[in-house]
Amino acid sequence: MASGVIESWDGENQIADDYRIAYHRDHINAMKEAIFEDGAQVIGYLGWGLIDILSSQGDMRKRYGVVYVNRENHDLKDLRRVPKKSYAWLKKAIHSNGEEM
Q1: Where are the beta strands (DSSP E) in the chain?
Q2: N or C: which end of the chain has fewer CB within 10 A?
Q3: Residue 47 is part of which domain span?
Q4: pLDDT more than 70, % of the chain
Q5: 70 φψ region: left (φ > 0), alpha (ψ -120 to 50), beta (else)
Q6: C-alpha dihedral over 47, 49, 55, 59, to 10 degrees?
Q7: Is the CB of residue 17 less than 8 Å from the CB of residue 8?
Q8: DSSP class of residue 73?
Q9: Which of 45-54, 65-74, 81-90 has the highest mean pLDDT?
Q10: Residue 55, in any domain of the structure
């Protein structure tokens, strides 16, 4: 998965971003491996951003976060924040300190 993915929301159903879950799971597992097998001193993990943001090109087509922002490049729509499937996954991973991934 690249940093950003083109996603859309149908106005009702949860966005099933399994690719984002796999991306974060793989990176967190690599971090855990570095800590426990290589003795790396890691103080945290940051997955770019929690909500969709404008890309460096001022574009909303590519989405980065675990929370969808209901807007497009030239249409602000209602700016509603909609948790994606990865939001629930990340919440569970954080609450379990990485044990439930």
Answers
A1: 5-6, 62-63, 67-69, 81-83
A2: N
A3: 5-96
A4: 94
A5: beta
A6: 130
A7: no
A8: T
A9: 81-90
A10: yes
| Total of domains in the chain | 1
Do 98 and 32 meet the contact criterion of CB atoms below 8 Å apart?
yes
For residues 22 and 5, the answer to whether their CB atoms sit within 8 Å is no
What kind and span of H or E run contains 30?
Answer: helix 18-38
Average pLDDT over the chain, rounded to an integer? 90
21-32 exposure pattern, b = at least 16 Cβ within 10 A, e = fewer = bebbbeebeeee
Q: What pTM was estimated for this model as a whole?
A: 0.87
Structure tokens at 69: 């922002």
pLDDT tens digits, one per residue of 5-35: 889 999 999 999 999 999 999 999 999 999 9
